[in-house]
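Reopening this one. Same input as before:
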Amino acid sequence: MENTPLKTNRMPYFNRYQAMGRQDLEETQRLRRESESSDNQEHDCISLDIQRHPERTNMPSPVMGESEDIPGLGQYDDFQTIDWQRDLARDRMRHRYIVKHKKDSVWDFIKAAHDAWSGWMCLFLVGLVAGTVASIVDIGTTWMTDLKYGICPGAFWLDREQCCWSSNQTAFGLDNCSQWLTWPRLVGVTDESAGGYIIAYISYVLWALSFASLAAILVRMFAPYASGGAIPEIKTILSGFIIRGFLGKWTLLVKSIGIMLSAAAGLSLGKEGPMVHITVCIGNILSYLFPKYGRNEAKKREILSAAAASGVSVAFGAPIGGVLFSLEEVSYYFPMKTLWRSFFCALIAAFVVRSIDPYGNEHSVLFYVEYSKPWIFFELLPFILLGAIGGLIGTVFIRANIWWSRYRKQSRIGQYPVTEVFVVTLINAVVSYPNPYTRMSSTRLIYLLFSQCGVANTDYLCDYNRNYTNVNGAIESAAAGTGVYTALALLFLALAFKIVMTIFTIGIKVPAGLYIPSLCMGAIVGRIVGIAMEQWAYHYPQFWAFRGECSTGDDCITPGLYAMVGAAAVLGGVTRMTVALVVIMFELTGGVRYIVPLMAAAMASKWVGDAFGKDGIYDAHIALNGYPFLDNKEEFDCTTIAADVMQPRGKAPLTVLTQDSMTLREVVSILENTKHNAFPVVISRESHFLVGCVLRRDLLLAIGSVRRKQDDISDDSLVIFNGALQGNASASSPVKLRRILDLAPITVTDHTPMETVIDMFRKLGLRHVLVTHNGRLLGIMTKKDVMLHMSHHQRTIPSVFH
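Same output, byte for byte:
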């Protein structure tokens, strides 16, 4: 991902001080004197909108005689885009002031030290809380999942494994653990009888319906933003969009409880994607303990990016993969210091999870594999084939899920979210129970498919015609028994069922992630291909590709490795991840020596997927929902210029404010009759020479503050943005608003190519640019205008702009 070059001062067609150079010499010198005297030549960015903090109360005001701080100045309303340049300039100015005065007193030195380590302290707390919450979610999910099958009467709060451990029966199962009672056995019926099967079936369905319905009700009543996986929304928020409440405390609470319920219901979803949402919520809440981040939206996004990395770290036990995931997939602005802080946050979170050990395998990873057999060079071909299959499955899934999501939004189905969850859960539970591979949880199925067959494995997948004479020796190759073919048939049915149910499940109003379903589908495909390769090598050991490695009689093909590669391929086909995916997979399984097969499958999956469509599932949902997200990885080629896109075009009038000749009544009238979020300020209506730009929200707050604090303000008062008051005929005092005026707005000429303008919006994180011609203002171009132009160029207009 390309970082935002915030230190760039010059760009083609780009002159930030163009308007000031057009003024006469006397006016320019006067403005320079004011600017220099405002802060002893220290604050070279004083013309920007700076929200002062309590520690800066002894600083002189930019314009003498102006009022004190305006509450809420510099903040943003809901569903607005932040101004990256302004917020980062505010932070640089605040930092310069702290550094300048840190030697004045011991207290100033302490404040400077606190400012230096506040980011690390915030992320330490984020990692600590994220690891704790993730462990609680993992333990709660396991307990609720086992509750569908039975209960531990002696200690109902224990899951099946802990219940059997407490009775010293480590080799547990539904039949050989006396402490764990299934629901049929609890009522005195054996599991093997027809009545026992019916009771277990009904209990499974009822518990699933109860969990899913409760999750849907909680989401609908308390936190509507807690549904889904939220990765598209997090990408949009990290790009600079404001969605109030999406990262709030109620969303955090309901998401944490809801993901346990929805995952335990047996739906085709995972808790790993929502875990990223949970950790980002934690980062957002804790950032308010540190005003440096809580009061600055651009700086806050550094904390949120690191929190997203900790989400993957605690979900998969993959701290390095979490950092790369945040860098490659979700973050928009990712400077080097954020990389290090993300690594630190992911490390703390992984340490906490490892200390609590919710998986119970002492490896702090979800699917640890025990085998380390080297792979054969010839196997690269089936690995690449699995990658291609994963790309095709991912493409089919994306298109089908987007089609169904669009249909849900346009039909009456979307008006009854709880009913939809109930129906989907009912179908899922009724159909999945007869098949043992769909009845078990997706995480347990993935672990089973990744595992190598051994003496202790009694599943149908390991029903080979072999005799284990030496437990510690190498496993010999053998022909597949009837159980293997039965398992293959059940796996084919499970694959079709998983694909169909995941299409309809992702998007319902419960917390739902798609990582685990994608891994599950890929693991099924990979295991099937692995068994086919294994039997090929057994029956034809003298084939040139197997000669040497497979002629000794040992099992030279590992079907579990194929399941691992297939899982990576489908997940890559769905999300279009590459580097982060490979790192997550080998951290997830501990299979470091299988990096090359994973890389080959990931690249093949992305190539095949991109051949049918460039967008992954997250980008597709961003486009479907019409979020204002400019992907900095996407290329845009067009021949238009800024004059073709700016507003207004033709003979339509341009709404502007003048620097010193408008009354308060005229300014308020413009605010009431327009909905623009920014207003250019010019010298006069006749000249249209640009002076600066003022934001609508800042203007409203400033006018309200002046009216509250000054009694001699009337509708006839002159509004002074810049310049001196000349001959005030009114008895009312003027309204001085220079401190909310941005004297250095981003400008382009009318002949600037749109390719350059789009790059500016992407890399500088702009909300708007002003279009000029020879210093005169022609129009304004917002992020919305740019996205509409790109969508029109691509013939797909996002729905949010209709």
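So the earlier flakiness isn't reproducible anymore. For the record, The first helix runs from residue 18 to 21.
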